[in-house]
Write a structure and sequence with these properties.
This protein has two helices and ten strands, in the order E-E-E-E-E-E-E-H-E-H-E-E. It is mainly beta. It has one domain: Sandwich (Immunoglobulin-like), CATH 2.60.40. The strands form two sheets. Strands 1, 2, 4, 5 and 8 form a five-stranded mixed β-sheet that branches. Strands 3-10-9-6-7 form a five-stranded mixed β-sheet, with no helix packed on it. The longest helix has 5 residues. The chain is globular. The protein starts with a strand and ends in a 9-residue tail after the last strand.
C-alpha cells in the first residue's frame, strides 16, 4: 500500500523553451526524498495539447542541476500508453495527461542531498518519434526541488 505519493502535474510549453509549470502549485515541482513520486506530463503548443500519435518513446531523467552530461540519478522510459485525447480543460481539471512516470520511495531515497535540507535537480524530458527517421522529440528541462524527509537509508 502506498501511504505517501508526491504528485506533480508538469505542463511543458514547447514553444517557449522556458521550462515548465507545475499545475497543482503553479510553482517549482517539489518532492519529498524517500516518497513515491508520480509525474503527470502534459505537452502543449499554446493552449493546444500536442498530438502524441507519432510518439514511440518518452524519457524522463533526473540529473544534478544543470549537469546534462552526468549519469542520470533517476531514469524512466515509456514506450506506450500515450493519451492523444488530452485537452487544456482535462489537463486543468486533473482528469487526463499525456503520460505518467513513477518512481518508488526506494528509488528516490537514494538521491544525495549533500547534507542539505533540500537540493535542486534538473528534470529532463525527451522522446523519439515512431516514423521512418525516428526523430528526437525535445520536450524540455525543468528544475525540481527535493526535500529531505529524514527517513530511510541514504539520508543526506
Amino acid at each position: 500500500m502506498i501511504y505517501n505519493t508526491d504528485i506533480a502535474r508538469i505542463r511543458f510549453q514547447i514553444e517557449k523553451h522556458t521550462g515548465a509549470v507545475e499545475t497543482l502549485s503553479s510553482g517549482q515541482p517539489e518532492f519529498w526524498k524517500g516518497a513515491d513520486w508520480r509525474i503527470d506530463l502534459g505537452v502543449f503548443l499554446g493552449n493546444v495539447a500536442v498530438d502524441t500519435t507519432k510518439w514511440a518513446t518518452m524519457n524522463l531523467q533526473v540529473k544534478p542541476l544543470n549537469d546534462f552530461a552526468a549519469t542520470p540519478l533517476l531514469n524512466a522510459t515509456l514506450s506506450s500508453g500515450f493519451a492523444n485525447d488530452l485537452t487544456l480543460d482535462t489537463w486543468l481539471d486533473g482528469t487526463k495527461q499525456h503520460c505518467t512516470f513513477t518512481f518508488t520511495g526506494t528509488q528516490t531515497v537514494a538521491l544525495n542531498l549533500g547534507g542539505a535540507l533540500s537540493k535542486e535537480f534538473s528534470l529532463i524530458v525527451w522522446g523519439a518519434s515512431n516514423d521512418a527517421t525516428a526523430k528526437q522529440i525535445v520536450i524540455g528541462v525543468v528544475t525540481i526541488k527535493v526535500v529531505e524527509a529524514g527517513i530511510g537509508s541514504g539520508a543526506g
